[in-house]
Structure formats: C-alpha cells, structure tokens
Batch of 2 targets.
Target 1
Amino acid sequence: MRKAIIAGNWKMNKTPAEAAELVSELIPLVKDADCDVVVCVPAADFTVVGEAIKGTNIKLGAQNVHFAKSGAYTGELSADMLKACGVEYVVIGHSERRQYFGETDKTVNLRTLAAVEAGLTPIICVGEMKDEREAGYTDIIVEYQTLMALHGLTDEAIKAAVIAYEPVWAIGTGLTATDEQANETIGVIRKAIERKYGKDVADAVRIQYGGSMNPKNVKGLMAQPEIDGGLIGGASLKAPDFSQVVLYNK
C-alpha cells in the first residue's frame, strides 16, 4: 500500500514571522495524521520553519532547485544548499515555473536528477492546459512530461519520487477536475510508468492530485484508488483548512 502524502505549496507567501505563526498553529492540528505531511515554503522561511517543525511529523520542502552544484546562476539554489538547510522535499516543474520562468521538460529532468543525487525527494509536477484537454491531448502530454522528468533515474529513485498531476486550468481558479477525471489521468501516468519501468515501479510511486484540492473536495478525491495525496496551494496557507485536508480520513 502506498502511504498518502499531503504537501502544502505556499508559493510566494508568508514572511518569516508569518510563517512561524502559521506552522506553529499547524503543528498540533496535524500531529495525528496518517499521511506524510510536507510544507514547501519560500527560501526566506527555511530557517524559521525548519526550527519550528523539528521533532514533529511535518517535513520541510522547497519550491525549486537548480541543476548545477554551483556556479554563475544568480538567484538560484543548488540541491546541496537545500539539503544543508534541512530541506527534504522539493517541488520541480510546477506549472507556474513553466509558464513564467521558462521551465522546460529538459530542465525539469535535470533538476530532478540533481535533487535525487543530493538525497532530496522530488515532487514532480505534470499537467495539461485547458485548450490541450479540450483538444484531447491530456494523456499524451502527461505521459511525455512524466517520462521525460524520470529519464535517467534508477528504478529505486522513481519508486521514492512523488509525481503531482496538476491540470493547469484548475490551479488557483477554483475549478477542479472531477474525482473521476483526476483518477483517470493519474491512472494514465501510472500506466506510462508501468510500460517503461515495470509494474513494481509503477505500483510504488506516489502520485498526487494538484488542482485546487481543499477541505470540501478532498474526501472524494482521496477515495479514488489511483490518487495518493495532494499538492495543496491556497488551502495550505490557512492552518485549519490545510489540517482538514491532511486529516481527510479522520
């Protein structure tokens, strides 16, 4: 059985003081969670959040990582830097990185390889635009993005990785795929991994849904057999909301 993983993506929100307040409120609310709990915070919040969650069941995540170990990459952070800050998970290839900052399937792969080499767990984002879904290309796009991201990883590294299916049209819009749509597309991703790497690998890898999961829809989504968790945006910025998602089975 795959253990569920709920990860909050704070995006560009929360000063260190605000982050400390949020995570302090969150800690007691999710202490009895049955799933893995991760908060992916801005780099400015690594220290304060990392200190606050020591000894708790919450893990620290980052929102991006560079593929080089060091060099002339102003504004970037290497995997070793993240590791040294106590980061355990890192979001890679989020649609906002693809849309606003020129992320490509190639750089997603390079970042994933760098993260794994440093001992970080990648949360690899894949997903289609609204017009691509309407044109019937969803399956092709998510299969390609997934297999490109995983290229060069060992079977064991793929098993340990997390994939987040995030239909781009459902991020920050209040729209969400139906439970069945999300489950179907995540099933497509898993089948693509099975064809390439075998059933053992496909059965082990955890695949989240990342399109506006919230307290109102989490139970239906998490009841689907292919969905292993959620990458949570807006709902992760309020401790009561995020805790309700984390405790979806309580």
Target 2
Amino acid sequence: MKKQKNSTANLKVKIISGCWRGKNINFLEKKDLRPTKSQIRETLFNWIQYDVENSYCLDLFSGSGVLGFEAASRGAKKVFMVDNDLDVVNCLNIQKKKLKGDNIFIFNSDSDEFLKNFNEKVSLIFLDPPFTKNILDETIKSLSVSNSLIDRCKIYIELPHNKNFTVNIKTPENWELLKSKKSGDVAYLLFQHNCSMI
C-alpha cells in the first residue's frame, strides 16, 4: 500500500526527558521537515540544562515541534512555536492537545512576519530552518534587530555541516559562540546574546 502524504502514521519522535518523558510526538511527512536527532537533542539539552526551567522559549521553525515540546516537558514557562505550513501547525496543535501542553502557543506565520509583531521577551531560541532554503542569515538579521531577546538569551542553531561552519555563519558581534558540534551532515551551535557587548 502506498504511503499517504501528510500522514502521521509511523512518523514519531520520542521526548527524552521531563514530565512527558517517553511520550511520542507524531509529525508529518513533508519535504524539509527533519526532527532534530535524539543524539543532538541530548547534547543540546545538556548544554542548556540550567536555562530551560521557567524560560520563555521561541521555536521559530517548529516542524515536528520536538525541540519546543522537549523544552516544555523540561519546565519552560512558555513555548512559542512558529511554522508557515498550515498542515504542520494543525499537527502541532493535535500534539499539544494530546500532551495537554497549556504552556505552548502555536502560530501559523512566516518567521519574519512573526518577529515583526512579537512582543514577548525570550531567554531561549531554537533556529532550525529548512536546509534547502537559504534563510538562516536573514532570520538572524531579523532577530538581531528584535527587542525580544533578553540579556544572556541562548540561541541554538542547526545547519548543514561544512568545513568552516563556525565562521561561515553570520551572527551579530554580541552573539557569543558558546558551543559547537557536528553529527554526520548536521552542524549545531549554541550562542549567547550579550546586551553588554552592544
């Protein structure tokens, strides 16, 4: 039987820790939608283990939503999930309802448009845009002029791995690179926004 497009059947990823530990998140089969691998998530949340609880978290290219759901599971106070695909947003809402995630707020929006109208202050940001779309630099630029990042806000970025991935990424001077690592064809980095460096 041919697999049906946009079906959530058998497409699942597991939350690693927190109050929803072991719970499965269903996600859609979509081009460019790749849940962050569990090994990478384990490393990321070890990096930010003291920053998640009571945080205001922005998951700007949610996709499967696993980063945002993981943060909510680990005690984030509010998690804002954003995706421009309505099917994906509908699926995220189903997962939120299943988990009773009252601290999760889901938006169907383009990332730039969302940032223009976003008035909350956040302490944690996940940036994992589609690899086939060259939008990371533009998104970083939009964030750099946003008033939504508090001092010492942590920004996680996932991108295709290449030899000079840590220097090729264009970040503001007041974004301090704290950690970087690669796993297969994926590179991932953690930055800190420092208001005192502006």
